[in-house]
Specification:
By secondary structure, this protein is an alpha+beta fold. It contains five helices and seven strands. A seven-stranded mixed sheet has the order 1-2-3-4-5-7-6, with helices on both faces. The longest helix is centred in the N-terminal third of the chain and has 17 residues. It is globular. The model has no long low-confidence stretch (mean pLDDT about 95).
């Protein structure tokens, strides 16, 4: 198992946009091949990720010899999923871990790092979502202290479950 103290979560730079987009595409294919409804294939363009990286929304973990092995998008509001809710919160989207890092604790490291970012900003609420049909991911978030607080259908795709946790 890789030791978490060796991992560093950093704000993505422009040169990270291609590997972040590549990781997203790989995971879209992996999910599709397993019949897991989470991310439609090709839903997120490279240009969109590059624009989000430019706005400093993406954080990533890069390892020597492996490159970008994990990434997530960190937001301070999320009206698309949460509406005009004025609750100060940190929001995570697109949490991604390369399959070569499965079962190493990387996902938990990302979630804990996001909570640290939120706390450092003086926030006490952490929010994220996943497809309602993705029972595995729903259980994963629940096991990490997140509670289901609602459902939403985004852009007519499929229902998502909204999760929240106090930090």
């Amino acid at each position: 198992m890789t030791e978490t103290r060796q991992w560093q979560l950093e704000t993505a730079a422009p040169e990270d946009a291609p590997p972040i987009h590549g990781l997203r595409r790989q995971l879209e294919d992996w999910l599709y091949d397993r019949g897991i409804e989470q991310w439609p294939r090709g839903e997120v363009s490279f240009d969109r990720i590059a624009s989000e990286v430019e706005r400093a929304e993406w954080r990533r973990v890069r390892l020597p010899d492996l490159g970008v092995v994990a990434a997530m998008r960190v937001l301070w509001s999320d009206p698309d999923f949460w509406g005009a809710d004025p609750t100060p919160a940190i929001y995570v989207h697109g949490l991604m871990v390369d399959r070569s890092m499965a079962r190493t604790g990387m996902g938990t490291f990302l979630l804990e790092s996001a909570a640290d970012i939120g706390r450092a900003a003086g926030l006490h609420t952490f929010r994220l979502d996943c497809a309602e049909a993705n029972a595995t991911l729903r259980s994963y978030y629940a096991a990490r202290g997140f509670h289901e607080v609602g459902r939403h259908v985004i852009r007519g795709l499929f229902p998502v479950v909204l999760f929240e946790k106090r930090i």
